[in-house]
Amino acid sequence: MLYTYMRCITLYHKTEFMKSKFYIICALACSLNYFAFAQEMSFEAYNPTSTLVVPGKSIIKAKFPFIDVHGHQYQMPTQDLTPVVAAMDTLNMGIMVNLSGRTGDDLIKSVANIDKNFPNRFVVFCNINFEGAGAKGWIQEKVTQLKEDVKNGARGLKVYKSLGLRNTDIDGKRLAIDDSRLNPIWRTCGELGIPVLIHAADPKSFWDEFDGDNERWLELKTHPRRKRDANNPVPWEQIIQEQHNMFKSHPNTIFINAHMGWFANDLGQLGKLLDEMPNMNVGIGAIIAELGRQPRFAKAFFIKYQDRILFGKDSWKPKEFPTYFRVLESADEYFPYHKKYHAFWPMYGLDLPDEVLKKVYYKNALRIVPGLDKSKFPD
Hints:
CATH superfamily: Metal-dependent hydrolases
Radius of gyration: 28 Å
Helix content: 40-55%
Shape: globular
Number of helices: 13
Order of helices and strands: HEHEHEEHEHHEHHEHEHHEHH
CATH topology: TIM Barrel
Largest sheet: 6 strands, parallel
Number of strands: 9
Structural class: alpha/beta
Number of domains: 1
């Protein structure tokens, strides 16, 4: 009896010991799996909450009323503009420049919609389809239509990046931005006193190797169609040089180089370009993330070139405007950007002086874009 009892006790302890070993092994396995997962976590998934505590707050309304010179409202001919204006009011946006005005009847309808419902809150730029340049009578037709569009209310010409990237001439060859056959268009804009806002190429990183050294790796991974081969359709440097050649060939025409000409990450070089081309101005659409990581250098740049920089956002996403306001207006440190694939780094405020802010927000646009209602803005 005693022997049987002792044997049962021994078996029990052995069983418990085996269970303990099993649980320990399971725990170790889970730990190893956890750490393996942590080591293999993708860059997209790694988004830690910052433990840094610093003063600062979001700025949801601009300090001064502003003009967005790089807006897009693609359905403006028939669009109900009421919700757009309501959002503009919450942001303190006085005027939006709709760069997607198209041409002909569509432009006329857009202007009519504005005049009927919200006069002086919007203006439109016209657009040109550059396909088939070089055909008989092509340039005369485009210049005539440009003049007609301006007569019908267009306040400028917007040139999309398709010029230099995709547009072809009558022979199917890539149409360069500085193609001499386009000169009458740029010259006519100068004669009419309207600016040309032009988007050329894309960020240089789109042409670079898609590897760990590419700062836009995440953007290219999440948006693979943006990636280009080094010579697709030509090197990035060639397209940019074509644009600069065109600026220099038409000193009497005012140009607004969208996205800071893709030199927001090299403000020293951009400053040299502004010095070389006094008829070139720059917009800050879609490049605020570059400015927000170099606050001291960018502030000095804005002060030096305060008469040449215009506010513009590009995509119409009202929730993203506060990032622009905070970078331009505040002295805040280490705050997040609104798109990780654009910027995985934090932002810092430039703390621009009021007079510089006023020029960027509205004074430069009032000077460059004809026919804007100045009564909506101070000074």
